[in-house]
Amino acid sequence: MPGIERTLSIVKPDGVEKGVIGDVLTRFERAGLKIVAARMVQLSVSEAGGFYTVHRERPFYGELKEYMASGPILVLVLEGENAVTMTREIMGATDPREAAPGTIRADHAESIERNVVHGSDSPESAAFEIPYFFPEIEVYSY
Length: 142
Ligand code: ADP
Ligand code: MG
Prior knowledge:
By secondary structure, the chain is α+β, with helices and mostly antiparallel strands. It contains seven helices and four strands, in the order E-H-H-E-H-H-E-H-H-E-H. Helix 3 packs across helix 4. The longest helix is centred in the C-terminal third of the chain and has 11 residues, at 123-133. The chain starts with a strand and ends in a 9-residue tail after the last helix. 34% of the residues are buried. Residues 55, 60, 64, 94, 112-113, 115, 118, 121 line the site of adenosine-5'-diphosphate.
């Protein structure tokens, strides 16, 4: 199917804690994205570091690993037309002060770090991030 993509999304520890899992999933489903894999997990600091290895030189990397390992997260694979871009649009900008009104981060994020949700930033990132959590056999097309 041309244009059909998969992307990795995460409801981060603050999103789970705030009780906005349902709201996040509803926004994705209403946009026509299919939830084709889902699992709750609590990462170790080193597993969180592996996921965010692209940011290993950033000054916030240490804090980011601790934050991502601080509680359970809901990891998702979303599938649909332009799923990568669509998911990023529904999430809003990294910094909630810059996030467009009506986006998840504008509505729920408290800071540039504790911003509720993750979404792959490109198909190439998705191709690394999806198998970090899910073997192909656990991603269900329907
Ligand atoms: P995004 O999640 O929008 O793709 P990045 O990939 O740039 O953003 O950053 C990954 C995550 O690292 C962010 O979602 C956020 O949790 C954290 N982060 C990004 N920038 C900062 C920062 N300046 N200070 C603290 N944490 C940050
Ligand atoms: Mg990113």
